[in-house]
Each structure stands twice: as C-alpha cells, then as structure tokens.
Amino acid sequence: MENTIGLGSMREHLVTEASFDAREDFVARISRGKNTGESRERSAERRSDSRVSHLLSRVGQIGSIERGEESGQWYHRFGSHAEDSLCEQLVQAEAGYAESPENPRLRKEIGALVYASGMGAISAVLQELVRDIPVREREGKRFISGRTLYFNTRDLLQKELPRAYGIEPALQVDTTDPENVRAALEANRGAVIAIYYEPVTNPLLEYTDTRAIAEIAKAFGVPVIVDNTFLTPYLLQPFRQGADVVLHSLTKYANGEGDFQAGAVVGRSEFIRKLKTARTNDGQILSDPSLAITLAHRLSGLPERMDKHAENAQAFAEFLRSDAQPYVSEVYFPQLQDTRGSSAGGVLSFVLRGENDSERTQRESDLMTYIAQRQICQMCPEANTPLVYKTSFGESGHLILGETTFGYPPEYNPGLVRLAAGRTNVQPAISFLRQALTEVYRK
C-alpha cells in the first residue's frame, strides 16, 4: 500500500517532535489567502463558485481542464475554485507547518478532498484501499481498527466492506496500548490493509498515541488512518506523529453551527487524485456549491471556537467532579500530553451513581426525560433550556445525550451520559444540570 497511500519520503518532512504548532502560526496558515480587499473580478468569481455549472469560453475547454492543462471549473461534481480553496485551507490546517522555502513540495505532495458527510469521506478512503487489492488477493485481508469507533464506521469495517468486497471483518484492537497493535500485526503479517482509529474515542475519551502506532506500523509497511474529528488540527496534527491519512467530519467543529454536513480527507496527492475520480462517479460531493465558501469562512474561526469549547468542557468537568459528586461516580475527561493545552477537546462523559446497573440506567433515562420535557418541543430545532437533549457536537449550544437514547441495551457503562460543551455561557447550563440531577435523585 505504500506506493498508493503512504507518505513515502514526505514523512520525514511531516513528522516532528511537537504534536501541534504555536497558535499564531496556526491562525496565520488557515487564514492565508483570505482577501479583505476583494477585487471586482474575484467577487464575481466567488458568485460564480456558488453555481452548479459555469460559462465556457471555447471548444475543447472541458477536456483541457480535466487533463490538467489549464485551471478552470465547468460543473460542480468535477470540482470548483471554492472547493480547491477549502481543500488548500484543510491542507494548511493539518500539514502547512511543513511548508517552507527549503521544502516547497507540500502543495504538490499533500492534498485534500471534501465530501457530502464525514461517513462519505470515511467510506471513500476504506473502499479505495480495498479496491486497490486485486479481487483474487482479497481473501484473508482485513483492517485493524480501534476497539471503540463511531458506530457507522464500525459497521462499515465489520459488515459492509466484508460483504461487498470479500475481505475479513476488521480486527478490533485496544490501540491505547501500542503493543496490542504490534501483536495484531505480527499475527496477521501481510494481511492488514491499514490501521484505522480515533485518537480520542467517543464517548469514553480513551487516548491513542499515534506516534507509537505509526512507528510500529511503519515496520510492517502498513498505513495509518486517523479520524481527527474529535480533536481537530488545532489541538492535534496527526501528520506530525506519523499518520498517513487524516479524516474529518466537517459537520462538527469545522462547521461550528450544525446546519449542514460535510467531510474531508487529507493525504498524499496521488491518493487524493484517485479518490476524486471515484467521487466524481459516485456523487459524494457537497450538496450545495456555496457550502465550500461557508466552510472556508468558518474554518478560519476554528481556533477561537475550540478554545471556548475546551474551556467550557473543563468547567463542566470541574462541576461534575466536585458539586455533582453525590450523583456522579466517574468523569471521563483526561488531560493529554500531546495536545494543545493538554485538552481532550469539547466533549466529556460521566456515569451516574446507582446501587446496580439497572438503577444507573434508570437514573440516566430519568435525567434525559427531565431535560427533554423542559425544552420547547422535541421536534423543534432550538430549545429554551441552556442544556439541550440532542446528538452531535461542535455547535454553539451545550448538548447532552444518554445511552438509553438509542433504545438498545447500554453499549458502554450503564448510566453513561455524554456532554458536548458548546460556546455559549456555561454557567446557566451547569446550574440547569445541577437542578436536573437534584430532581432526578430526589425520587
């Protein structure tokens, strides 16, 4: 796989001792190219970027654009200037630190591609890697995945890809101990397509050291794919630690408002070009051409937003570990060595107290019901409470979600509740949570 997805000689330019860069450098990179004094021509071009199709000036122009003989845009599904700008911004966010006059290769060697959703990006990468394997050689091949993954990603690795392509279900490994990965690679030598994991898991916030995993994987010639949605490139840049491909659900922190879906892949340009060809055929593009412009604008505000998410998450954690102790037995919100400010991001989880699993589950269910009943209505997009019962994270509001929400037996600890800290004033949300816990345990 090294010649398709691996970074090859670029790795030495991308791997650094630090796992993130100075805040001012990051801000400068993702803001690069923003023109405050926009020319009339560029303003017209931006309006054109929001169209599905574009004016052509001569016969044969589409072929020239597609062959790379000239720059241009002609139909949204094949790409646009707005998408190109967003992709450059994503490359700068994840890997721009490696660009310098002495090393001008970055723009040619590392690329990005955006998709209609985070799962669209994940599916595209995993399917492309499997399709790279000749059909007659797929038997016995498999991915190694983290033990805890987003449930749709897990289903893709465990069920959908094996059913569609004839590979084995992914081997789930506790990647928080790199030696588990080494053992899995030894036991499956020559059969592993790639290693896939989330450096901070949802919802237990277990941390995987990408630097250690990448060192082991390199010895076996196996690429490392990291879903960096939870931390974002502001808190952690996995290429610095040796990752080969970085994925994002842009729906979350990069968007910041939760009003549309998008996903992204950042990796070796050769691999990105193959993904783009496949995306042109399967149509996993942003639904509206103007969304690329919106995302680029919002991405430039990521540092300020993430600072607030992390600050509010810390405030929630301090409350849960102190005033809420009569109701809370455990809080999952670690301090990490490899991230900016040692932050685990804007999401934390906690477990409610109870004499047994049944009581803990009931307390969690009661807490969700208490909050849901105090919202304007369960079908409204907004609520009049400072803590909102809904899925997702990265939005301005504070979101809470319990295990019983999904209607299945608890997958994790009974009584587990996830809190996604938003950016609004956290104190009213803490006061509301205090009141809710008091009422639930009064029964």
Portion of residues in beta strands equals 5-15%
Radius of gyration using CA atoms only: 23 Å
How far apart are the first and last residues' alpha carbons, in Å? Answer: 58 Å
**Helical proportion, percent range:** 40-55%
Query: Which architecture name of the largest domain does CATH use?
Result: 3-Layer(aba) Sandwich
Describe, in plain words, how this protein is organized in 3D.
This protein is α/β, with parallel strands linked by helices and 443 residues long. It has two domains: 8-299, Aspartate Aminotransferase, domain 2, CATH 3.40.640; 302-442, Alpha-Beta Complex (Aspartate Aminotransferase, domain 1), CATH 3.90.1150.10. The protein is built from 16 helices and twelve strands. The chain has helices spanning 11-14, 23-31, 40-49, 61-66, 81-95, 106-109, 118-131, 151-165, 178-187, 210-220, 232-235, 269-282, 291-299, 302-321, 357-373, 426-442, and strands spanning 110-115, 142-146, 171-173, 192-197, 224-227, 245-249, 263-268, 328-332, 347-352, 387-389, 398-402, 416-420. It has a seven-stranded mixed sheet, with helices on both faces. Strands 8-9-12-11-10 form a five-stranded mixed sheet. β2, α8 (151-165) and β3 form a beta-alpha-beta unit. It is globular, with a radius of gyration of 23 Å. Mean pLDDT is 91; it is low at 35-45.
